[in-house]
Each structure stands twice: as C-alpha cells, then as structure tokens.
Fold this sequence. Notes:
single chain; alpha+beta; 2 domains; seven-stranded antiparallel beta sheet; 8 helices; 17 strands; 25% strand; elongated; binds zinc ion
Amino acid sequence: MDHIKFKYCVWCFKDISKVGFSREHIIPSSIGGLIYSDHILCTKCNNDFGTEIDSNALKHREIIELAHEFGLISDTSKYLTKSHDINIEAEGNTIKGYLKNGKVYPIPQQVSDDHIIVPDDITKETITKLVKRDNRLKHLSDSEKENEIEILLKKYAEIAHGNFIHSKKLGLLLKKGITGDKINFRSKSVNDPLVPLVLKIFYEWLSIIAYDDFFRSEKIFPALRESILSKEAKSGISVIRLEEKRDKRSFHCVIIEFDANSTICLISLFSKITYQVFAPPLELSFLDFHRKANKLDSLCGIHIEENFHDSKKTILFIDDSGKRINSNIEAN
Ligand SMILES: [Zn+2]
C-alpha cells in the first residue's frame, strides 16, 4: 500500500526521517499473508511485533498444522515446542494435548491419581518409552522388558476405554485413554497467542483506513494499545473465537464494520480460525472521505481478502446494504 505514506510509525509515532521504516506484513507472511506496507511501522516496532506477536502465533498448534496443510511450512517439528497449548478435559482431568490432522490427542502423562493416560493410537510407543526411561527397571533385561510389554499390550487391547491395567513387574498403572471426537478440548482462553495477533491486525488496518480518526479516538485507540501490550482484550475490547467454520471464505479474510455504537472486526485465518473483535466506536469522518473519493452513496465497512494460492488480494468497501464495492485502496 505504497500510496499511503505515514510520516510517523503508527505504533511509537517516531518520525520516519529519524527511525526508518521496514516492510510490515499485516497478516504475517509466514502464514501466507500477502498485504504489506513499507510505510506504517518503524524497523524497531516491526521487529518487536515480530518477536512478541507473530512468532508466538506460529507456536499455536492449530496455526502450525494449517500452515503445514496449506504447504507453507514443510517441517512442523521446527515450530513445535515441548509446551503444548491445548488443554484437554478427559475423564475429569485436565491434561495436555496436541492437534494432528484436526484430531485431538492427549500427550501420555501422569494425572492426579497416579495413573497414566495413554492415547490409543500410540500405545506401544508410549509404553515402550515409559519402560525404557524408568530407572527402577534396571534389573530387567531388554528381552524381559519386551516380553512384559507384549503381555501388557495384549491385555490393553482387550479392556474397554476408561479401564485400568496394571503390570506389577513394570510398576505401571495404565488407563486406556480416549482420543479424537470423544475428548472435550479447549485452548487456554488466557494467553491465547492468537489474540494479540488478531488485535495487531485490527490496529494496523484501522491505522490505514481511519488515519487520524483512529489515532485521536479517546476509547478504541488507547484500549487497543493497552490490549496489545498486555496480550489480552481490555477496556471495552472483547475478542471471541467463533466456533463456526467459514470454508467458503477465501484464505485469509478481515472484515471491519463501523457504526455509531461500535467497531466490529472479523478475522478469519486459513478460512478456519475465526475471531470477532468488538470495540468502541470511532469518529466516522474518514468514512465520508472514502465515500466521496470513491463516489459511493453509503459506506460502513471494509472487506479484505488474501489468497496466496493465486496471489489474489482484494480490498473492498461495504455499503449500508452489505454490498461489496471495489475500493481505491491498493494492495501490494
Ligand atoms: Zn515505531
């Protein structure tokens, strides 16, 4: 968006002539974001956002799996860390889990009453690992351990989900776990690493579309900054994750709608991860500016789509009837 040239960084407001700007992808390029500006963020703020917001979003398991599915990253292990960001509620326990191909799996782990939950699909792997690293079993030879594991696996195959088996020799109490659809899972609502990203995308688009009406606003501007800094929605801002899947949408989509009472932003990543942000209203004189410049009867929002498969970027205005109209905002 080279035609919009800010003199100041939209985050720290330092003069461009003193600090220097760098290329900012509004949706990170690492997840297929196409639209960028060389004139909104100074190099320092861009780097800070990169380390504090964008890279944390890339640790989100759903994002990694989707980026992998869409061919953006070939090796997911590069991004996966030992800290798993999904909590699973299974059989009355809250345990750590991970997502793979849209299914949820518990990570083998000890829970409160000392038994170990074992995911069904990787039972043998799990038990073998547990036995190998158990120092108390040094007195057993490898073949003795293997025998014992075979016996245990046979029993394991026969019991129903939710039941226990015990191996005296190996000192293991195992509970046959459940996987996939039978598990209720929730991402941690606090510290959701996608919330700061969603708020940052919203902030940058408001800077671009609403200019001074945004920077001078007494409610939405300070509230969004505070929320981005504290990494959670604050002061009249609320962020909700929508359950519905919006597969018909293009790859990445941002819709912002303005009215006298509120500013509402919908951000959909990979057509699957959708957040809605509710925020205080803005002075709407910038809408008049765009309306006149584009000879429109009415204008109440903006609809942005980015689809890296065909490199298509679309920025449309939304009129009062919900119709999408070509805008004069160019995307690069
Ligand atoms: Zn800056």
